[in-house]
TrEMBL record, chain A:
Signal peptide start-end: 1-24
Domain of life of the organism encoding this protein: Bacteria
Keywords associated with the record: Signal
Domain Periplasmic binding protein stretches: 60-271
Protein name according to UniProt: Sugar ABC transporter substrate-binding protein
Protein's cellular compartments: Cell envelope
Automatic annotation (TrEMBL), chain B:
Provenance organism: Nonomuraea harbinensis
Membrane topology classification: Multi-pass membrane protein
Transmembrane residue ranges: 12-34, 40-64, 71-90, 96-115, 122-141, 161-183, 214-233, 245-262, 292-313
UniProt subcellular location: Cell membrane
Coiled coil: none
Keywords for this protein: Cell membrane, Membrane, Transmembrane, Transmembrane helix
Protein name stated in the entry: ABC transporter permease
PANTHER family, per the entry: ABC TRANSPORTER PERMEASE PROTEIN YPHD-RELATED-RELATED, RIBOSE IMPORT PERMEASE PROTEIN RBSC
Signal sequence residues: none
Major subcellular location class: membrane
UniProtKB/TrEMBL annotation, chain C:
Transmembrane regions listed in the UniProt entry: 54-76, 83-101, 107-129, 136-159, 171-194, 223-242, 248-272, 279-299, 305-323
Origin: domain of life: Bacteria
Subcellular location field: Cell membrane
Main subcellular location of this protein, as a coarse class: membrane
Taxonomic source organism: Nonomuraea harbinensis
Record-linked Pfam families: BPD_transp_2
Name of this protein: ABC transporter permease
Membrane topology field: Multi-pass membrane protein
InterPro entries: ABC_transp_permease
Key words, A-Z: Cell inner membrane, Cell membrane, Membrane, Transmembrane, Transmembrane helix, Transport
Keyword Cell membrane: yes
Length: 373, 328, 328
């Protein structure tokens, strides 16, 4: 049997089919508004460029994506959506793409503060106002979660549990973070530590095990298992981390090791908890209400487009910055609020009021951040 | 093959022709589905965005002609980037940064070459370890975050354009022609092709195959590290995942343009470049259309399988049914 | 070859004398290394020598171990790797989780998930053996296809806690998690079949020398095809194990999983070209590389070093592997 006996028909078929399919996929349908090519600059139709943090795979990014599209549609503005792929350099090239496409306003969501100056140079050169989500970009309107404060809410919830039940003496505090996520991860960790110390000022540093972890459930489980094994005598365990996945992974790891009895976890982002991932031991999670982002962003855009020229506040530590309100959300109240799809429906319906997601859905009596009143 | 294809059919299936056809189809799709894609600014952005991959592709062409396929290229690009950025921050001298990145590249190249050539391990496998190790080193050096290294002058210089054509694109094309010339018309290029085509025959003809391969590993890693520092100069910061997947893009383009993983093949530097450009344009069209990026993965998968089948249709891969990598 | 080359050759001859002789020796060296690691870590932190560590290491071994078994069959048969095994496992896990959410009972859901693995295995076999595409390219293409398509449709699935899968598979037997026993059973059956049955010997014969096997009336294509299908089957089972471990299955695979699988096989002494090596060695290397991350935490080394160490381990494994091949 030699090469000459290789049947060539199926080969040709596969070659042609794959290449055709590959090329045809480029033309796949999508609901992105495509700016008309021939439009002259004089029309000055509002054209928003939105670069999302990553592929909208996770519900939070999907919610943001949906919200942006719905709000743009409502105002019949053009919108182009790009993907920063969790990567600074990609964000820079996306910024160039947006400028190239002639956007009039840019909404930038990328996690790498270090490329921000470079990115802003690109936009400034084209005189495009920018709203930067979650990460400070010098000269851009900051909008979003205060990662430090959000982390603080989770740290505080965990610290308070430790205070009430363990007299501020947990045997172990696991703190997972995903280094590849850049500044977001570092700021959240900073906040978690801040909140913890607020509740338990005398908490010794050596009970806190801070570790880099993949964002996948099995990856986080592995990292958490290894930490737990390195502290075999730890009973009262506080599980914290940069997102829900890591905290739930830690609780699952403790279950695998037969040590789930005294684990208390408090998530961050509530992206999994609000989807009904009900893990015993998960006390709650700090809800970001990402689905409400687009609404708040467009309120700001309305002002800019109307020529009100709101002052640019680019620092997330400035109290005048535009924050999306966040709040602690106890696990046992998850069932009391509508599903994400319904929440999006409610928030972006044609007759929806101006109430933010946090105002609508945060329960009574929890710690909040950025909620007025 | 029992029947020889007619000359016209051969021409149609030649690497350059298929590469150009591939590019043409992509461009037509772009024009139809994303009109703004043709704008000068967009094309300039795409072409300067592929600067680093294109440079790596050219040197990977050289190496592949000599039978060296280095999987660690993307990680070495990241390593070069982070070394450049770190040294730049410490010394405030871009030159020192580039020198350090080059040194890192040479060190990695030497490691790969010793492992592969001295221990007779198929290059693709020998460099697997470095793929992971160099990526790990990026995290170790940067402490797991990105490193700022914004030098406005250098960044602006890399973005200059003559009319609508970015300077870097001109540079890359000149390099491609140069690489093509080296492979086809120089003595060294001849030796290289002999080494890639048939190791034993090359050795009998007195060509120092092993020494050439060792050089190839070092040159490839060196250039990858330099491309990494160029990339950082352009974007202003190194990221932990800088260059991740570049190896797949580059080897995908080379395979589509008719190179063979086992060494040799009949692609050319220019046809490889054309394919790389086409692949990048596909990504660009996806971005402009807001299509889900996993679809790019599906596409890359289909294109890889499709391209290699096409190569087999050309009847050039005389691979026995069971793979026998060149283990020396 | 130049004089310096000859001098080097002599030096390797001396180095290669240090390389373990035979495959029993590989297993022994690996087990001794493992023992040294455990003792050293135990001395440093006495708490390390506990049932907790056993459970943690058993979990580390289970999911990866089943994939190692599958790819081991493929490697043994001389068809090199299956790079798609990880994403296939993830997709199987998502399938079983989704079906359970929709209220299916466990047996049919399990069957569908495992069948999916078999299907992907068969597709790989077709691409590699019937179309003649190089296994690395074909399975890489398949990896992109499967993961891309999956990620377009699903992000994550929460597995119901009261499902049979979570209730039963998550438990322990003799203090060791059930998923570990599943892995051990799969691993042992495959190891025994390859070592002491007729089909197993055929597999080894094909991997060792396809021409000779063909002369003895064994069809390499059929044997390797079965190997790919079995590998897909293992991926399906690995998916079930993954789904049983936690509350969520996500559509992305932890980066570097495929790499770890290949490292374990090569370190365990399976020959890259197929036909040589023992599953006992693979088990020892699985044990060693699964204990390493758990031990490393106790040593207080930054986890960023882990990929660096793993990459170097693979490089050493490759070098030893090649020295052993040279002696034949």
């Amino acid at each position: 049997m030699s090469t000459s006996r290789l049947r060539r028909w199926p080969l040709k078929a596969v070659a042609i089919m794959s290449l055709t399919a590959a090329v045809a996929a480029c033309g796949g349908s999508t609901d992105t508004a495509e700016p008309a090519a021939g439009e002259s600059a004089a029309d000055k139709k509002v054209f928003i460029g939105f670069a999302n943090f990553a592929e909208p795979e996770s519900p939070v990014l999907k919610a943001l994506d949906t919200g942006m599209r719905k709000e743009a549609e409502k105002r019949s503005w053009d919108l182009v959506v790009l993907n920063n792929d969790r990567d600074g350099p990609t964000a820079v090239s996306n910024a160039e793409t947006m400028v190239a496409q002639g956007v009039t306003h840019a909404v930038e969501f990328q996690g790498d503060g270090k490329v921000a100056p470079q990115l802003m140079d690109t936009f400034n050169a084209a005189n495009i106002p920018v709203i930067a989500i979650d990460i400070a970009h010098p000269g851009a309107h900051f909008f979003g979660i205060n990662n430090v404060e959000a982390g603080r809410l989770s740290g505080l919830a965990g610290g308070n549990h430790a205070k009430e039940n363990w007299d501020c003496k947990p045997d172990l505090v696991t703190l997972l973070e995903n280094e590849a996520s850049g500044d977001v991860a570092l700021l959240r960790t900073e906040g978690i530590l801040k909140g913890l110390k607020e509740a338990c000022p005398d908490l010794p540093d050596d009970v806190i095990q801070r570790r880099n972890s993949p964002t996948t459930p099995d990856g986080a489980q592995g990292v958490a298992r290894d930490i737990l094994v390195s502290k075999p005598d730890a009973k009262n365990i506080l599980a914290l981390g940069g997102n829900d996945n890591m905290v739930i992974g830690t609780i699952n790891a403790a279950e695998q090791l037969g040590r789930a009895g005294n684990v208390f976890g408090y998530g961050l982002g509530a992206d999994l908890m609000l989807f009904g991932v009900d893990t015993p031991g998960l006390g709650g999670s700090t809800a970001f209400w990402y689905e409400g982002y687009a609404k708040e962003i467009f309120k700001l855009l309305d002002k800019i487009v109307a020529g009100e020229a709101p002052a640019v506040v680019d620092s997330p530590t400035d109290p005048n910055a535009h924050f999306n309100p966040a709040c602690q959300f106890p696990n046992d109240q998850v069932k009391s609020i509508p599903s994400l799809d319904q929440r999006i429906e409610e928030l972006y319906a044609g007759d929806a009021g101006s109430a933010s997601a946090a105002e609508k859905y945060c329960p009574e009596g929890v710690e909040t951040y950025g909620l007025k009143g | 093959m029992t029947s020889r294809p007619k000359p016209s059919a051969t021409a149609l299936l030649s690497p350059m022709a298929t590469s150009l056809a591939f590019l043409a189809i992509v461009i037509v799709c772009g024009i139809v589905f994303a009109p703004s894609f043709l704008s000068v600014a967009n094309l300039a952005s795409v072409s300067s965005g592929i600067m680093a991959p294109a440079i790596i592709l050219l040197v990977a062409c050289l190496a592949m002609t000599g039978g060296v396929a280095d999987l660690s290229l993307g990680s070495v690009l990241g390593l070069g980037g982070v070394v450049y950025a770190t040294v730049l921050q410490l010394s405030e001298s871009p030159l020192a940064g580039v020198a350090a990145a080059a040194a890192a590249g040479v060190a990695v190249g030497l490691f790969n070459s010793v492992l592969s050539v001295r221990f007779h391990i198929w290059p693709l496998i020998a460099t697997l370890g470095m793929l992971v190790a160099a990526r790990g080193l990026v995290s170790v050096i940067s402490g797991g975050s990105s490193v700022a290294a914004y030098t406005p002058e250098l960044s602006a210089a890399l973005k200059t354009a003559i009319g609508p054509v970015p300077v870097v694109l001109v540079g890359v094309v000149v390099l491609a022609v140069l690489v093509g010339w080296i492979i086809r018309y120089t003595r060294w290029g001849n030796h290289l092709r002999a080494v890639g085509g048939d190791d034993v025959a090359a050795r009998r003809a007195g060509i120092p195959a092993n020494r050439m391969r060792m050089w190839l590993f070092v040159v490839v890693a060196l250039v990858a590290a330099l491309a990494g520092s160029l990339q950082v100069m352009r974007t202003g910061a190194s990221a932990v995942n800088l260059g991740e997947g570049v190896e797949l893009l580059v080897y995908g383009a080379l395979l589509i343009s008719g190179y063979r993983l086992a060494g040799g093949g009949r692609g050319s530097a220019l046809s490889g470049l054309v394919c790389l450009f086409a692949l990048e344009l596909i990504r660009n069209i996806f971005r402009l259309r807001g299509l889900p990026l996993p679809l790019t993965d599906v596409l890359l998968g289909l294109t890889l399988i499709g391209a290699v089948s096409l190569d087999l249709v050309r009847g050039r891969v005389r691979r026995p049914l069971i793979a026998q990598p060149a283990t020396g | 070859m130049s004089t310096s080359g000859i001098a080097l050759t002599n030096r390797w001859a001396r180095v290669s004398a240090l390389a373990p002789r035979g495959h029993g020796a590989t297993t022994l060296v690996l087990l001794l290394t493992w023992l040294a690691l455990v003792v050293a870590t135990g001395l440093r932190a006495p708490g390390f020598l506990s049932g907790q560590t056993v459970v943690a290491v058993a979990f580390n071994m289970a999911f990866v171990g089943i994939m190692v078994t599958g790819v081991g069959i493929v490697m043994m048969s001389g068809a090199e790797f299956d790079l798609s095994v990880g994403v296939t496992a993830v997709t199987s896990a998502l399938i079983v989780a989704q079906l359970l959410v929709e209220g299916w009972s466990f047996p049919p859901a399990m069957l569908v998930a495992v069948l999916f693995g078999v299907l992907i295995g068969a597709a790989n076999a077709w691409l590699v053996l019937w179309l003649g595409i190089h296994p690395i390219v074909a399975t890489l293409g398949m990896m992109f296809l499967v993961s891309g398509v999956t990620r377009i449709f699903v992000d994550f699935v929460a597995i119901p806690r009261d499902s049979f899968l979570r209730q039963q598979a998550a438990g322990a037997w003799l203090g060791v998690p059930r998923v570990f026993w599943v892995m051990l059973v799969v691993f042992t059956i495959v190891g025994l079949v390859i070592r002491s049955t007729r089909p197993g010997r055929h597999l080894v014969a094909v991997g060792g020398n396809a021409q000779a096997a063909r002369a003895r009336g064994i069809s390499p294509r059929r044997v390797q095809g079965v190997a790919f299908v079995l590998c897909g089957l293992c991926a399906g089972i690995a998916g079930l194990v993954l789904a049983s471990q936690g509350d969520i299955v996500q559509s992305s695979l932890t980066a570097g999983t495929e790499f770890r699988v290949i490292s374990i096989l090569l370190l365990g002494g399976l020959a890259l070209t197929g036909g040589r090596g023992r599953f006992s060695g693979v088990f020892a290397s699985l044990l060693l590389l699964s204990t390493l991350p758990t031990a490393i935490v106790t040593w207080g080394v930054s986890s960023s070093w882990q990929p660096v160490i793993e990459g170097l381990v693979l490089a050493v494994a490759l070098a030893v592997n090649s020295l052993r091949e040279k002696k034949r």
